[in-house]
Amino acid sequence: MINLRSWELSLCLALVLSASSTQAQQPELARRPEQTAKNRPPAPLKAPDKLDPAHAPNANSVYQALRLRTVNGEAFTVSHLSFQRDAAVFTLENGTVYLYGPVSGITTGAVFLGEGSLHLVPPNAIERRQLKNVMKTEVLDQHFTSAVFAFTDATAEELRKASTGTAAGSGNAAGQGEEMRTLFRHDLKYDLEARLLEDMPPQGSTQPAGGGFFLAEMKGPLFSKRLIYMVDPHGAIGVAPEEVALLTSSEGTYDIALGFPSESQRKLPRPANNIPFRVTQQTIDANIERNGKLTATAVTAITATQSGITVLPLELFPTLRVSGVWGPSGEALDFIQEDKLRDAGFAVLLQKPLKSGESIQLTTAYAGKDAVLDMGNDNYYLVARESWYPNMRGALGNYAFYGMTFHTPKTVEVVATGNRVSEKIEGKQQLSVWQSNTPLAVAGFNLGAFQTNTSERNKDLQVISYANTSLAENYEGLRNSGMAVGTLSTTGMLKRATSEGDAAIQIYTEFFGPLQYDHVSLTQQTACNYGQSWPTLVYLPICYFWDSTIQHQIGVLDGDPSYWKVVTAHEVAHQWWGQTVGFASYRDQWMSEGFADFSASIFLLETNKTDKEYRDFWALLHKRLLEKNAMGYRPVDVGPVTMGTLVSNTRTGDSVYTSLIYPKGAFILHMLEMQFYTPQYGEKPFQSAMQDFVNSYRNQPATTEDFKAVMERHMTASMDIDHNHKLDWFFNAYVYGTETPKYTITSDFDKKGDDTIAHFKLTQSKVSPEFAMPVPLYLELGDKRTIFLGHMPIKGSSTVDQTVNLGKLTAPPVRLVLNYNYDLLSE
């Protein structure tokens, strides 16, 4: 028998997250961090006073030659040729190689016809599992009869050296090359030639091409899909910034079978930055007409992070057509932008290479429809949330200062990221100027004829809610449908939005620390099915602004009624997760979405008189993870959260990503919260750890390993079950793994004098021998209270049999229970 006081993990009694905590007086909000001189906004960028006549798009002669290249180079036979590109080994057993004609003296592609094979061993167990999910094998051995290669590395020379004799040209080889061109331009919408151009020597230069780009597109008689293997030092398709990808493509769609860092990156303790440049500042002048047409000029400051950069690939919405790009002195620059329905990626070509650390200013003029939609009655919908201006590709890891000027019809108000500097009417237009006071991960805006409501509780950080005064035309049919929906006005719910947003910020500030912003705008958007959060700017679905009677009438409560209770809380949480703290790649996005869902749970706990909605919320997340989808997969089983979007494919289903990342990410943080919890200090250790995380990665992207390191800095003694001050046991199981344990517990009680003696058996099953967990134990009492006892460590599939002196209790014990607060994700 173990006495309560001598139990290693300090079993003791404490009330668990009682509803009375919600009645306590809320503390004052902590003040936001002061602006440092380093982070104060710089002066707005200015376009050159005089601009040379603009160049036409796609006019660069080397780029044109790459677009027109054909399979008309040398042709020769090869036999038993093997070459390795990262984790893949290609073997050309017997056949003919047909080279593309050189561009600027450089060969950038080849076609192989014959018998060949691909042998690919994924570099770790997680990737082997992913390959099995997509292609039903952990090691890929694939026979092919044709392959089209594109490259800027030494592949051409390797092929030439392996020649066993010359061969005649082939119309079939040219046809294979044309098929591959169509695949990339029309289906994948990827400008392969622009990528090849990045590694070509500048025009007029005598230096050789330099680059490590390699691409193979393969077909075979047994292929149901095409195979695409890519190694790109700048980031491969679908998995950037990681450099290696394996894709399968068929009928206009593709699955990402694999994505992982290159061999050189895998050898590093932390992957090096492979993004060749970053955007540091943008000044944008945008005119939005009543029909939604956007005409804008963006002045962009760019700093190189690598030397030798001559091509700057940027993201711009395909229907926004560029009319000209200029350098810092007004000199016209070449640029790339193909047809809006094909590989329309925007890129700027510099006149001379940039050195690492060197900066340049670009001015881009562009215009087009469809990026902003006129929804009628002064309602507008910004489609191009991240790409209405020339932006970094994969923008949410790049923090920059933004200055924006908007010209709109005078009845239309703009609400944007950052702070409103001024607003005035000029003739028939409204002029609105905005400036970010801190670097932002992305810039955006909403616009409409708004009515507003402003919070009064805290002047240091205000919540301002905006709803349209008129209804968008696409919803007018509801008013004539015969349903009892009234006028469908959205302005009546403004106070609710403000109240929920204000409460969420109050709660999250206590948990995670203050924001750097002095306001957050909650704006109504015309879309009903989702919300989104940009820095200082939240887009809330229009259906949120209708009461439950209307929501019931139009059917939005049929699927997930809890969504409408937390959508504001979830999106406000993204002001911390995704904006203040960014995520480094798709592998880290689970923190943004999962932490926002976790934040919504504490919002429910702190704003309700009982914990019912809080517990119902966790029950729903648990159900989503363990319930099979239409494809027969439980989200919890398809892969770890660090696989990100890769878990969704044609076999597992498109929606499995959302069903995994959001709830499991929330559970991971909640489980850590409950591991940090102690009767003596309550939530304080967890809150300190989370505030350290926010302060350590404020206005910069964080990786999963960054988060783990911060948690380890603050971990309690009871969490150090391996006695190495590491949380490998937790992260390997729940973050990098897919194990879901099953627990059972039986208990009985005896009296020894005034003390209560508890005897229990705790069983952990369905886990590997290495799986370890300090399991939280609770005691249910006869007076309907449930109290936290402590953590019981258990490893592997095993049973712990213990007798514990609980001391003198104030009410008779009923039973020992597990997962009272959904402390563990388990069966």
What is the structure about, briefly put?
This protein is of the alpha+beta class and 827 residues long.
What can you see in these coordinates?
- By secondary structure, this protein is of the alpha+beta class.
- Among the domains are: 94 residues, Sandwich (Immunoglobulin-like), CATH 2.60.40; 198 residues, no CATH class; 129 residues, Neutral Protease, domain 2.
- It has 17 helices and 38 strands.
- Strands 7-3-4-5-6-8-9-10-11 form a nine-stranded antiparallel beta sheet. It has a seven-stranded mixed beta sheet with strand order 15-18-13-12-21-24-23, with no helix packed on it.
- The protein is globular and about 100 Å long.
- It starts with a strand and ends in a 9-residue tail after the last strand.
- The N terminus is likely disordered.
- InterPro entries: M1_LTA4H (IPR034015), Peptidase_M1_dom (IPR014782), Peptidase_M4/M1_CTD_sf (IPR027268).
- GO terms for molecular function: metallopeptidase activity; zinc ion binding.
